[in-house]
Amino acid sequence: MIEPQWKFKTVDEDSVLYLAETFNLPSTIARVMSLRGITSKTHTREFFYPKMDQLHDPFLMQDMHKAVEKILMIIKNKKTILIFGDYDVDGTTSAAFLTLFFRSLNVDIHFYIPNREKEGYGLSNQGIDYAKYIGADILITCDCGITDFDKVSYAKEKNLDVIITDHHKPAKRLPEAYAIVNPNQRGCNYPFKGLCGAGVAFKLALAICEKGDYDPQKAWRHADVVTLGIAADLVPIQDENRVIVQQGIKYMEKLTNPGISALRKTSGLWKKDITVGRIIFWITPKINAAGRLGDASRAVKLLTTQNPVLAMEIAQKLEEENNRRKDITIKITNEALYMVKTECDLENEKAIILQKNDWHPGVIGIVASRIKEIYNRPTIIIAMGKVEGKGSCRSISGFDIVDALNKCQKHLIGYGGHPIAAGLSIHPENFEEFRNIFLQISQDNINPEDLTPKIYIDSEINLEDINHRMIKFLNSMEPYGPGNMRPIF
C-alpha cells in the first residue's frame, strides 16, 4: 500500500465564522457544515430534514413526457411491457422496482436479465427476442442501453419500441430509441446529474403517477429497493438521493419487502441499524453474487416475491455463492498482485492493465478495485476468452477512464461506464496494442502527484469537543455515503 498524504480540506473561513455565530455552533461543527455546503437556514432544513417534496420535477428530464405518454397508452390498452435490466445491483434493483411498481398498476409486466458470460453487458438480441416471444409491445431498459446502437436497431427491425432509462455517460451519438431518459445525455437540463439507474427508474415511476393520476406512494413504497441500487452504485448521497435513501431505510426497518428482510437475516443485520455502509458491505454483495456466478434474474425474483419462504431460500443460496465468490476473488487477486510485481514497470507506467485466460469474468471488477486501491493508479483487469475478453476498469480521481477508452475505441468491441468505473470487451489479438495506447494516454494525462493517495481531513478536534452535542450532530448527518462521507478529524 502507498502511504497516503493527509491534507486539510479547503474551507471558506468566513462561512465557518458566520455559521458559528448565526447558529451558536462550535467551530468544529460549523466547519463540517460549511464543507458540505450547509450554509443557510434553507440548506440546513433541506439537509437535516429531507422531505419527499424536495425532489425535482421528473418532467424536466429530456424525453420524460414522450416516455410517459407511451407507457400510459400501453397501460390503457392493456398491453405487455418487458423490463430489461443490467445484471449488476443497480440494474437488477431497477428492474425489480419497475416490476413491483407496474404490478401495483395491474400491468402485464415481465422482466429479463442477461447472462453476464453469454450475453455480456447491455441490451441483447436474446432479450429482444424474448420480448417478441411473450408478445411485449414495449421494452424498457434499466441501467443500460445508452450505447447499444445495433441492439436498438435490431429491436426496431422487430417492430419493438424501446425506451431507454440509463444514467451512464453517452457517446456523441445516441441510439434510435423511441425515448431516452438519461439525465446525463447532452441537452438534458435536469438539475441533478447524480442519479443511478434505479434513481432514473424511480423518477420515471413518479412521472407516470403524476401524469396518470396514480398515488405516488405506489412508487415510494418501494424506495427500499431503489436504495439498494443507490448504495451499490456509489452515487452521491446528496440532493434527491439523500431523500430517497432516508425513506428507503425507513421501509427496510418496517420489513415491507420479504427479499430485503431475508438478506438482512442472512447478512447478520437483523437487529442492527441499517446504514448505507452496511448495505454496501453486507447486503448488496449478495445481490451481485446472483449475476457474478449464476443467473442474475434470481436477484429480481428475490426482491419482487411476496413469499418469505422463497425469499429466504434464494437469500441463503446467494449467501453460499457469495462465499464461493470470495474464494475465487482471493485467488485471482493474488495472481494479479504477482503479475503486477513481475510484469509491470510501475516506475514508468501510470496504469495497470492485466489479462489472463482462466479468470472468472464475474469477479474481475472486485479485483480491479483492490489492485487500484493498493497501487492508486488506473487499473484494468481482463478475463480473456478465446474469442472475446471481458474487462473491468477502475480509475483514480482526475482521470476519466471512459474518455480514455474512447480514445482507444477502434481496438475495442465495446465499452461504457462512469469516469471512475467502466467495463469493456476486446478481441484477444487487439490486447497488446490497446494496452500500449492506454498506457500512453495515462502517461500523458496523469501527474506524478496524482499517484499518491490522499486522506482529506475535515477539521482538527479537541478532546473536550467530543461530547453529547457532537455525537448528536454526527448522527443527524446520516445517511452517510459518497458526497456525504463521515467526517474525518
3D architecture notes:
The chain has a 5-stranded parallel β-sheet, sandwiched between helices. Strand 10 and strand 11 (421-426) form a beta hairpin. The protein has helices at 13-22, 27-35, 41-48, 64-76, 89-104, 125-133, 149-157, 197-212, 217-220, 223-232, 239-253, 258-266, 276-292, 297-304, 308-343, 364-375, 401-406, 431-445, 468-476; strands at 5-8, 80-85, 108-112, 138-142, 161-165, 179-181, 352-356, 379-384, 389-394, 414-417, 421-426, 454-457. The chain is of the alpha/beta class and 489 residues long.
In short:
By secondary structure, this protein is α/β, with parallel strands linked by helices.
List keywords for this structure.
489 residues, alpha/beta, five-stranded parallel beta sheet, five-stranded mixed beta sheet, 19 helices, 12% strand, globular
Task: Write the SSE topology.
Blueprint: E1 5-8, H1 13-22, H2 27-35, H3 41-48, H4 64-76, E2 80-85, H5 89-104, E3 108-112, H6 125-133, E4 138-142, H7 149-157, E5 161-165, E6 179-181, H8 197-212, H9 217-220, H10 223-232, H11 239-253, H12 258-266, H13 276-292, H14 297-304, H15 308-343, E7 352-356, H16 364-375, E8 379-384, E9 389-394, H17 401-406, E10 414-417, E11 421-426, H18 431-445, E12 454-457, H19 468-476
Parallel strand pairs: 1-12, 2-3, 2-4, 4-5, 5-6, 7-8
Antiparallel strand pairs: 8-9, 9-11, 10-11
